[in-house]
Every structure is written in C-alpha cells, then in structure tokens.
Amino acid sequence: MPQQGEEKRRAFVTFLAGDGDYIKGVIGLSKSLRLVDSRYKLIVSVLPDVPRRHTDLLLAHGCNVRSIQPVLPPPGVCAFAWPRYAINYSKLRMWEFEDYDQLLYLDADMMVFENIDELFDLSPPGFLTAVKDCFCDWSHTPQFTLGYCQQCPGRVPWNFALGEPPKPYFNAGMFVFEPSSKTFGRMMQALAENHPTPFAEQDFLNLFFQDAFRPVPNAYNLEMAMLWRHPENVNLDKTKVIHYCAAGSKPWAYTGEGANMDREDVKELVRKWWGVYNTPLIIFKLDIDVKYTITIPCTCGKK
Ligand SMILES: O=c1ccn([C@@H]2O[C@H](COP(=O)(O)OP(=O)(O)O[C@H]3O[C@H](CO)[C@H](O)[C@H](O)[C@H]3O)[C@@H](O)[C@H]2O)c(=O)[nH]1
Ligand SMILES: O[C@H]1[C@H](O)[C@@H](O)[C@H](O)[C@@H](O)[C@H]1O
Fold first, then answer.
1. Which of 73, 157, 222, 300 sits between 20 and 30 A of 92, alpha carbons compared?
2. Measuring from each residue's beta carbon to the nearest atom of ligand 2, which residues come in under 6 Å?
3. InterPro entries annotated for this entry (predicted)?
4. Model pLDDT, residue 297
C-alpha cells in the first residue's frame, strides 16, 4: 500500500496466450494507449506457449512482458461458450502482481480511442470496477428466454417466478483491480470448489466480486454487439474503448462475413482499428544519457 502522499503504482495489463493472431491485438492495443498519451505503461502477461519471436516483438514495441503460469479451469465437464475460454482463468494470475497498487486490465481484442487514465481514480479501494455486460446473446440463461437484459431493465420486467433477478454482472474484458497475493490465494480456494461455466473466469470473477463490483459507463468497454442490441445506450462519439468481441469482428480476422458484420458502423470501427495498428511509432526510447559522440567511418568512398 502506498504511504500518504506517495503516488500509487499503476499500470495497464493485458493477457496473451498461444502463437496465434492475438499478438496483433496486443500490438494494436499498446499503440492505441500510446496514441492517447496514457500515463501508465502496458504489461503483457504471457503464458509459456507464447513464442519468443512474439515476446521480442512486444519488447520492441515498448511493452513490459511478464511470464505467468497457467491457472487451470476448475474440475468438471467443459461447459464453455467457446473452448478457447478455458485458458482465460490464467488472467487471475495478475492478482499476484503485488509490485503494483492498482492495475487496469484490457483484453487484447480491445482498443482505446481516448485517454482512460481517470478510471484508476474512479475505482475506489476494495472494489473491482468494470462495465455491465449485455445478456442478449446468452441463450443458455433464463434471462435470455425471458428477453431480460440489465442494459435495459425496463424493456421486459423480471419474472420473480424464476427467483431473484440476476445480480449486476460485468464483462471481464476491462476491469480495474488491486493486486494482492492474499486475494489470489482466496480465489484459488474458491476456484477449486467451482466448476466450468459458459463464461469461464468472467463468471467466476462475477461471483467472487459480487458484493464489490463498481459499474462505470459503457463508454469504457463498448461491446460491439451493443450497436445492434442496445443502440439507445450507445454514443460512439463519447466512446473511449471498443471491445471487438462479437463473432467475426476481431479486426485481424475480419472478412465482413457473419451476422451484422456488413454494418457500416462495424466496418468503420474495424477501419479505425487498422488505422491505429498501422500507425508508425518510434518504438525505442533510449533512457541513457548520451555524453559522447562516435565517429562512424565512411564506407561510401566519398570524402
Ligand atoms: O488464443 C487466445 C485466446 C485469448 N487470448 C487472450 O484472452 C482474451 C480473452 O479472449 P477473447 O477475446 O477470445 O474473449 P471474448 O472477448 O470473446 O470474451 C469475453 O469472455 C471471456 C470468457 O472467458 C473473457 O472473460 C474475456 O475477457 C471477455 O471479454 C483475449 O482478448 C486475449 O487477450 C489470447 O491471448 N489468445
Ligand atoms: O459476456 C459475454 C462474453 O464476454 C462474450 O465473449 C461476448 O461476446 C458477449 O457479448 C458477452 O455478453
């Protein structure tokens, strides 16, 4: 904990697994944070299956790379919405980064279009700060059958015959939290008593922090599907972070195929992502003080 008057040690953090294209997501994200003049650096937590050529690339882009060991899913029958979610429990390792007081996690399929440094201050101690999810695609839940979504609780009222309404639930693509080995230890204990569920570590985190979730506006994590699920809750001009999570919308794999992918607003957001990704940035900042000059012999034959 920082002493009174001391600055909090803060950073952005993301997560990278495997040798696939998510590396492009991380590079895009890191450039976007620099282009909006973020004050804090980006840590990339990498699993052992990330190849060396990818970690070298991240270092060259000025990222701070940290190796982490996987956290395995809890025992039980796999019930994940997508098999790839099994590795996402490893995100919990970031609670062990105790050399920071506060971290702001962002998925690699997110891009920051406006400075969000203020989120650190908007997150009170002891809370996890995030954006409310949208339930409209969750075909496995009673709220889906009912048509109930926390993004528009007035549209279809909750049916109490189904029990208590669902607790506020956040999307785990973006959240601010306080690392703590003690909390990590408690998480591992709770995880051992948990079982695999459709949204993997996201469901787990929602359970673990159910009494400590602090919601912030959708502008800090606009899930792509909000464009057609809840257009009344979207103001793209004021949106700071886009989450390319709808099926078919990952910019590096975008083909325009699939439901809603031919929308003009989707195409524009994908274009914006590529614009940032392709921005040439000076990637090395030498922090040594150069006090001497070197004479390089001329080899071109001219005097
Ligand atoms: O092969 C992979 C798969 C995932 N990731 C990392 O894990 C993150 C989450 O994976 P997805 O982007 O595939 O997840 P979605 O956006 O579809 O899913 C949402 O649900 C997930 C449930 O596990 C997580 O909570 C995730 O943070 C949340 O945004 C990625 O952004 C990336 O940072 C990789 O590095 N490599
Ligand atoms: O919670 C889920 C999950 O994060 C999915 O990956 C995303 O595509 C859905 O829109 C969201 O509701």
1. 222
2. 133-134, 137, 171, 199, 202, 223, 225, 245-246
3. Glyco_trans_8, GNT1/Glycosyltrans_8, Nucleotide-diphossugar_trans
4. 39
